[in-house]
Specification:
The complex is a heterodimer. By secondary structure, chain A is α+β, with helices and mostly antiparallel strands. Chain A has helices spanning 2-33, 63-68, 184-203, and strands at 37-39, 43-45, 48-57, 72-87, 93-109, 117-122, 124-127, 130-134, 145-152, 159-161, 168-170. Chain A is 28% helix and 38% strand. In chain A, the strands form 2 sheets. Chain A has a 5-stranded mixed beta barrel. In chain A, strands 2-3-8-7 form a 4-stranded mixed sheet, with no helix packed on it. By secondary structure, chain B is an alpha/beta fold. The termini of chain B are far apart. The chains are: A alpha+beta, B alpha/beta.
Chain lengths: 204, 198
């Protein structure tokens, strides 16, 4: 009889432990369903955390291909920008963008005029104090000059950056990208930055 | 111990261990630390059904299941089951990407600093992910490319990063810019997963 009591007690303790653990897990899962989530952080911009979302992106194998798929190719300066973040009902991110006003100084392709101000959707925005970047795209700096490869978005009033990181280049030949120098993405954009500047500086 | 006692013991042990076993099998917290296995419960947003991407998203979810560290379960209902992954379809005509994966961690579990100080890839710490298909661009892909993209995004959920190295030396489904032209991860991808979690 003593044995049965001891075994029963042990079994009850084990059962209670198991139930407690299962409930703890359920509680965690419930939390995961709510807004209490943080994005994976990959970089820092000063004191600000940067989260790079992994994306399978449109891509072109050469500058020629990139040009062919662009509705507009322009040089100019970013005037200002407004960030938009679309979230799901549980607070997770659906879309991030910075709608930037960009004043054109030189037109290489497309029907726009020198001095026109374009609205460009950059795939990056700040959400809850974290910069959320699509595929490492870094926002243009206000007052800085860039060469942009753009496409017309049919159901919006703004222009998109072709191939995400492949469609925006500095004219000072620096690589603006959330990626480490040894990464393929960084090497690729560095190569295109040189090619684009070599070609379009001559045409200016 | 007499026969009656043995029987009682066995019955009670079974009752006692059941919830513990149930807990273990539903545990996905993870990855490369205490557990040696990912059990990812996934579901589809209605937008996936509306866009006709049910099969493609499902393919992605199960695409790594050949690896012993990966297992995905379809959880169509929200009631009392773990959901670690949700698929969405959204048309974003001013964005030039086909699909994207956002990785999250419950804020009560870990701090931002922890992501960057752990020795294993940061993605491995996530406990929740969302995969979004940008239908505006996605529908321009071939059927095989759609399946490949879905599996590619699942690679991110398991912690794989992009790899765009020379295709002649090694093939991977994790090309950011290029295409593998296969619906399934390669032996290289599986070996990377094994390295992460082993």
């Amino acid at each position: 009889m003593k044995k049965i009591i001891m075994i029963s007690t042990l079994a009850v303790v084990l059962a209670l432990t198991g139930i407690w653990a299962a409930q703890k897990n359920t509680k965690h899962v419930a939390q995961s369903e709510e807004v209490q989530k943080e994005l994976e952080v990959n970089f820092r911009e000063g004191d600000t955390k940067v989260s790079v979302a992994h994306a399978k992106v449109e891509s072109f194998r050469s500058l020629q291909e990139l040009e062919d798929h662009s509705d507009l190719i322009v040089r100019g300066v970013k005037l200002d920008g407004k960030e938009n973040v679309t979230t799901s009902p549980i607070g997770t991110i659906m879309d991030v963008e910075t709608i930037s006003r960009f004043q054109v100084s030189t037109v290489y392709k497309g029907v726009v005029a020198q001095g026109d101000v374009l609205t460009v959707a950059e795939p990056v925005a700040t959400h809850r104090g974290v910069i959320v970047s699509i595929a490492g795209y870094k926002a243009m700096k206000q007052g800085k000059e860039y060469i942009l490869f753009l496409f017309k978005a049919p159901d919006t009033n703004n222009l998109g950056i072709v191939a995400v990181t492949q469609g925006k280049y500095t004219t000072d030949r620096t690589v603006e990208l959330y990626a480490k120098q040894e990464e393929d993405n960084h090497k690729r954009i560095a190569k295109y930055t040189k090619e684009v500047n070599d070609k379009y500086s001559k045409e200016q | 111990m007499d026969k009656q006692c043995k029987t009682v013991f066995l019955v009670l042990m079974c009752i006692a261990l059941y919830p513990t076993a149930a807990y273990a099998s539903s545990q996905i917290l993870y990855i490369g630390y205490n557990d040696n296995h990912n059990n990812i419960g996934f579901k589809f947003d209605q937008s996936i059904e509306d866009a006709g991407l049910h099969d493609i998203a499902g393919h992605g979810a199960y695409s790594f299941d050949s690896n012993p560290y990966c297992e995905a379960y379809y959880r169509p209902s929200d009631s009392g089951v773990q959901i670690n992954l949700k698929f969405y379809a959204l048309s974003m005509s001013n964005k030039s990407y086909y699909a994207i994966t956002y990785l999250y961690k419950g804020s009560s579990q870990i701090t931002y600093g922890d992501y960057t100080t752990k020795s294993i890839p940061a993605a491995s710490h996530a406990d929740y992910a969302e995969i979004l298909f940008n239908t505006y661009k996605f529908h321009n892909l071939s059927t095989d490319q759609k399946y490949e993209t879905s599996a590619h995004e699942m690679g991110h959920v398991y912690g794989l990063h992009h790899d765009d190295f020379d295709k002649t030396t090694m093939k991977t489904i994790m090309y950011e810019y290029d295409w593998l032209y296969s619906r399934w991860p390669t032996s290289w991808d599986y070996s990377k997963i094994t390295t992460l979690y082993n």
